[in-house]
Specification:
Number of strands of chain B: 32
Strand order of the largest sheet of chain A: 2-1-5-3-4
Mean pLDDT of chain A: 92
Helix content of chain A: 25-40%
Largest sheet of chain B: 7 strands, mixed
Largest sheet of chain A: 5 strands, mixed
Shape of chain B: globular
Number of helices of chain B: 20
Number of domains of chain A: 2
CATH class of the largest domain in chain A: Alpha Beta
Oligomer: heterodimer
Number of strands of chain A: 5
Helix content of chain B: 10-25%
Distance between the termini of chain B: 86 Å
CATH architecture of the domain at 5-85 and 525-666 in chain B: 2-Layer Sandwich
Strand content of chain B: 15-25%
Number of helices of chain A: 5
CATH superfamily of the domain at 5-85 and 525-666 in chain B: Aldehyde oxidase/xanthine dehydrogenase, molybdopterin binding domain
Low-confidence stretches of chain B: 6-18, 20-27
CATH architecture of the largest domain in chain A: Roll
Largest interface: A-B, 74 and 105 residues
CATH class of the domain at 5-85 and 525-666 in chain B: Alpha Beta
Chain lengths: ~190, ~950
């Protein structure tokens, strides 16, 4: 075994839930979140602060958890991607990433969501340039960023308007429907 | 309020009912499976229903065979990916997110040497360590594997030699990562270092220690892994052409740069079956590979594809670490998880080949492309991977979209002691396409014609055949060019911008699915199979093996099923992850999934629909010919009020036949020539694209910024425009990275210097310009609803468009990628010295004065546009093969019409006489098995 650096008790609130774990004193926050807290939505992309996949909010500030000792986050309020939604209602930024094509393979998405959510908390009406500055530390290999910026813009306006994303647990399509509203019309002619 | 079933089944008077209506007065009960948010069937969305079947959707290129399956539900509409809610909530499980009870952590010991013999491995110290459960070396797995059956040259771990830094030597699994690392470090390996090869040209020479030994098939004693020779057409005509541009390209190796590092979990269950969780693009070939390596039958293995955090070709080989996890799990009796760090991702590589390409583009005095001559030497690194195919693709994929007089290709791929190159988005076609398009720009300039016009006057028409026999069906190339020309303001900007600002155009051509499967056994095995299952709940489960790697294949197949069955997407669920439940699909490579898998899905959905329609016929009394499948409801064409719900018909069908399932398969039609290598590049359809890029070049520093790009891609039919646009912009991002900043840098001693995302420069959001995605729909006759690929082809044109824009800005022809500031600065200095300009700010900028050919080509392009339209709508069905533009009769063999017409795949000594051609040197060796003939 590697000589242990000595274990310490680590406390923090993760997604509004108090966690207490015995962690190595040199443990990286990313490892603690993934392996001990169990928030696997925090992604490990590079371990060196280049990709932004591991971003979390620490006391409201976006931070790269791979560059952060667990110790530094002792006693803080941590929010990961799992903590963005309100029950089944997605956060507007989550809803818009899905709708605007901001997420393709989805691996970088948690990081983008975290930094964009932080941006929207600070700046309810960001310009495209401000959005770009907010996400500049995150790499996406699929989208070319354009639809991500679209998604953040959409989410900003959704949030400003106070719109609440739908609850996906609401009843889905009825496989046993009645005819069109006015069955006497031929299909399509209502236009 | 949903209608229910009657109280007394059997007394319902079914036989008398002919109008589809219920008998009044009987009490309704709730229908099992009914209820939901929208109790009324929606009217057909005629905006999305084609004219040919009574809708309002215009069809400028005529009807399509799938038009009658269109119900206006989802096809052509922008829909979010069906799995996006998993991704945005962090609940999508990627490779490293699979955590099993009792898991052990696996670590891989990698070679520190470029090339070495392994004299001995001592694992005793590692094995004795507390917390270590198993250690494995090459001896634990002696069977070979490889993605292509003809070039299996990989092992789970090194057998006798290591072939590159990072090659797998041994692996361990332990209770935690720290212990596993400690154990890995305790393994003692005795190496005998061998002289290593790093420059691809050295790979062409005989070697004392060839990196692989292919026995009697080995090419001399060299490191040539594959060599290709193809010569078609009128070579003499090409050589005597007046306008020639020859260039010598050097392009760096690339990595896919996906954000998710590889990870794998393997577990042998108590019944002795192996399950492997892995982010794989091609689970089926891994399935075969595991079976071969572990010596167990395929049915003993379940390959579970996790969510894939980006692939782009980099997760399409069966990988040695996947074998290692299975071996360790077998030895230890516990589940084993291996996850890579970012550096390891670069050691396994499989990225774009570093290449040296000599490109000649020839044009005759009538403004026709007299020929394309290519010599491509590509650096395969230590293993074959997909390289056999890559070697072909570097040449054969530029036999279109232009009609050419001759095609002369020599290609070779060599082994070197580097991480293996493989398939990457735009597989094999990207570098050489860039060289072709830059050459075309250069010969247009020599002829004093607009490069747009030159291209437009030399396009192959729809329904034609290329010089090597590829069957081109639909092509939207002309429309792509026209659209980017108009939207970019090309005519005002081209050659009119000041120094440092430039605009350029490039085109692309790519396969939409490879015509032959990688494994040709058994020959008629389908490429894609889809099973549908519908139960009493009325929802439809789609079982498919197509690997969703983020491109949205699950969404595409769900859309196809939803469209045919007229069901909302929320009633379709996809099961595509496990080989236990999914029928075989060959995987996400060669841009085949939408084309093949959706075709299979349409077939399956039609079968299911027919069964349900038959039930509806029995209920309503109306023949399916006069029944319309509407939104969750089947009704009489002339009186929509008369009908049955989807659920009711489904229940009836189940009552009649017991189970409601259907399946469909797709295989490519027979096509292509018979020469050796004719199958490489063969596809059931091809995609086309044309881009215009604008750049700012700082002439004092050599820094290039792309300011805007207009990207028109012919995807046949955009099943989901949102996803297609995402693919186009994403492809641009990757291509722009390749042209400006991305490269795998090898130091003087051959060591990879930038195995991380800090030094391997992927474009950030600030470098990424605005891209205007333009969708062109050419309505492919065999594509699902007319669709073709949109995932890889859109990458190709951005590279030459940028290179040509740089020329427009500063008058320097690029021939080295990436165009980093240091490289371009050197070129600018050299150019200044050559033309005797002291200050780069005084550099002359190329200008355009139309020559006499310009008008000729404008008229020819106009005539061709008419010709193409008639062929598009199939009014003109005459045969057309490459060569008609040069006066050949398409219905007679070319060789009969022209003396000296060549169709050769084996070179003669004269063909190899030019000592400057690099890949041609590969033919200087004799295969060992033929040595006796000498």
């Amino acid at each position: 075994m590697l000589p242990s650096a000595g274990k310490e008790t680590w406390n923090a609130s993760v997604n509004e839930e108090q966690h207490e774990h015995l962690v190595e004193s040199n443990a990286i926050l990313l490892d603690v979140l993934r392996d001990q807290v169990g928030t696997l939505g925090v992604k490990r992309g590079c371990d060196m602060g280049t990709c932004g996949c591991c971003a979390v909010l620490i006391d409201g500030e976006p931070r790269l958890s791979c560059l952060c000792l667990a110790k530094e986050a002792q006693g803080t309020q941590i929010v990961t991607v799992e903590g963005l939604a309100d029950g089944h209602h997605l956060h507007p930024i989550q809803q818009c990433f899905a709708e605007a094509g901001g997420s393709q393979c989805g691996f970088c998405t948690p990081g983008f969501l975290i930094v964009s959510a932080a941006l929207l908390d600070e700046n309810p009406e960001p310009s495209r340039d401000e959005i770009k500055c907010a996400i500049e530390g995150n790499l996406c290999r699929c989208t070319g960023y354009q639809q991500i910026v679209d998604a953040v813009e959409m989410a900003a306006s959704m949030k400003r308007n106070g719109a609440i994303p739908p609850n996906p647990t609401d009843p889905k399509s009825d496989p046993h429907p009645l005819g069109p509203d006015d069955p006497s019309l031929p299909p399509g002619s209502s236009k | 309020m949903a209608k229910g079933y009657r109280q007394a089944p059997g007394k319902s008077g079914d036989k008398k009912r002919t109008d589809g209506k219920r008998v009044a007065g009987q009490q309704d009960f709730g229908v099992p499976g009914s209820g939901g948010s929208n109790p009324h069937s929606n009217l057909q969305d005629l905006d999305y229903v084609p004219e040919s079947v009574g809708g309002w959707k215009k069809q400028p290129r005529g009807p399509h065979v799938h038009d009658r399956h269109i119900t206006g539900m989802t096809i052509g509409k922008s829909v979010p990916l069906v799995d996006s809610n998993w991704k945005v909530t962090g609940q999508a499980e990627y490779g490293d997110d699979i955590r099993l009870q009792g898991e052990l952590i696996g670590k891989i010991l990698r070679s520190p040497h470029h090339y070495a013999k392994i004299r001995s491995i001592d694992v005793s110290a590692a094995e004795a360590m507390e917390g270590v459960f198993a250690v494995a070396t090459g001896q634990d797995s002696v069977n070979k594997f490889g993605v292509l059956p003809v070039t299996k040259d990989e092992h789970a771990m090194a057998q006798d030699k290591v072939r590159h830094v990072g090659d797998l030597v041994a692996c361990v699994c332990a209770i935690d990562e720290a212990t596993a690392i400690e154990a890995m470090n305790a393994i003692i390996v005795d190496y005998e270092v061998l002289p290593s090869i790093h420059d691809m040209e050295d790979g062409l020479k005989d070697s004392e220690h060839p990196i692989h030994d292919r026995g009697k098939y080995h090419i001399g004693e060299s490191n040539v892994q594959k060599r290709v020779f193809q010569q078609f057409g009128d070579l003499d005509g090409m050589k005597s052409a007046p306008f020639v541009h020859e260039s010598d390209w050097e392009t760096a190796g690339l990595h896919h740069g996906f954000t998710e590092p590889h990870a794998v979990v393997a577990h042998w269950d108590p019944a002795g079956r192996l399950t492997v969780w892995t982010p794989q693009q091609v689970p089926h070939y891994l399935h075969r590979g595991l079976s071969a390596v572990l010596d167990i039958p395929m049915h003993q293995i379940n390959v579970h594809r996790t969510f894939v955090g980006g692939g782009f070709g980099g997760k399409s080989d069966p990988f040695p670490h996947e074998m290692c996890a299975a071996i360790l799990a077998r030895k230890s009796g516990r589940p084993v998880r291996i996850n890579f760090d970012r550096e390891e991702v670069y050691w396994i590589n499989r990225g774009r080949h570093p290449s040296r390409i000599q490109m000649g583009v020839f044009a005759d005095d009538e403004g026709r492309i007299a020929g394309i001559e290519t010599d491509a030497l590509i650096d395969g690194g230590a293993f074959a991977s997909f390289g056999h195919v890559t070697t072909y693709y570097n040449g054969v994929l530029h036999t279109a979209p232009y009609e050419i007089g001759a095609f002369n290709y020599t290609g070779a791929r060599v082994w070197t002691n580097k991480p293996a190159s493989g398939a990457m988005r735009g597989h094999g076609a990207v570098n050489s396409r860039c060289a072709v398009e830059v050459g075309i720009d250069a010969v247009s300039e020599q002829m004093n014609v607009d490069p747009m016009t030159f291209r437009l006057a030399n396009l192959l028409p729809p329904h034609s055949r290329t010089i090597t026999g590829f069957r081109v069906t639909s092509t939207g190339m002309r429309e792509c060019l026209a659209k980017v020309r108009e939207q970019s303001g090309w005519d005002e900007k081209f050659r009119n911008l000041p120094l440092g600002k430039g605009i350029g155009v490039g085109c692309g051509f790519f396969i939409s699915g490879s015509g032959l499967p990688i494994h040709w056994d058994p020959e008629n095995f389908p490429h894609a199979t889809v099973h549908l299952q519908c139960d009493m709940d009325g929802g439809v489960t789609v079982h498919t093996g197509a690997a969703d790697i983020g491109q949205g294949s699950d969404t595409a197949v769900a859309q196809a099923v939803s469209e045919v069955l007229a069901l909302p997407l929320d009633m379709i669920r996809i099961r595509s992850k496990e080989s236990d439940t999914a029928p075989v699909d060959l995987g996400s490579y060669s841009s085949r999934v939408t084309f093949m898998n959706c075709n299979a899905a349409i077939k399956a959905a039609c079968e299911l629909r027919d069964k349900v329609m038959k039930a509806a016929w029995e209920i309503t009394g109306y023949n399916p010919d006069v029944l319309v499948l509407g939104d969750r409801r089947i009704y009489y064409k002339h009186d929509p009020a008369v009908g049955v719900s989807w659920l009711e018909a489904v229940h009836k069908a189940q009552a009649d036949v017991g189970s409601l399932i259907a399946s469909g398969a797709y295989r490519t039609p027979p096509m292509g020539g018979v020469h050796k290598g004719a199958a490489a590049g063969l596809a059931p359809a091809y995609s086309f694209s044309a881009y215009v890029a604008e750049v700012d070049v700082d002439v004092e520093t050599g820094f290039v910024k792309i300011t805007k790009a207009w990207a028109a891609h012919d995807c046949g039919k955009a099943l989901n425009p949102l996803a297609v646009k995402g693919q186009i912009i994403g492809s641009c991002h990757m291509g722009m990275g390749q042209v400006l900043s991305e490269e795998m840098k090898y130091g003087r001693d051959g060591h990879l210097m930038n195995p991380d995302l800090l030094d391997y420069k992927i474009m950030s959001v600030h470098e990424m310009p605005d891209v205007v995605p333009i969708i062109v729909e050419s309505n492919d006759p065999e594509g699902p609803f007319g669709a073709k690929e949109a995932g890889e082809g859109p990458l190709l044109p951005i590279l030459p468009a940028v290179c040509n824009a740089i020329y427009d800005a500063i008058g320097i022809r690029i021939n080295e990628l990436p165009v980093t500031p240091d490289r371009l600065h050197k070129r600018i200095e050299k150019h200044c010295r050559k033309i005797k300009v002291d200050d780069p700010l005084d550099l002359p900028v190329p200008r355009f004065e139309p020559g006499p050919l310009q008008q000729v080509l404008v008229e020819r392009a106009e005539a061709h546009a008419k010709r193409d339209h008639l062929r598009d709508i199939q009014e003109d069905r005459s045969s057309y093969v490459n060569g008609v533009l040069f006066g050949f009769d398409p219905d007679k063999p070319m060789a009969e019409q022209k003396e000296g017409w060549r169709e050769a795949v084996v070179p003669t000594p004269q063909d190899l006489a030019d000592p400057s051609k690099r890949a041609a040197r590969a033919w200087g060796h004799v295969e060992r098995r033929h040595r006796g003939d000498e």
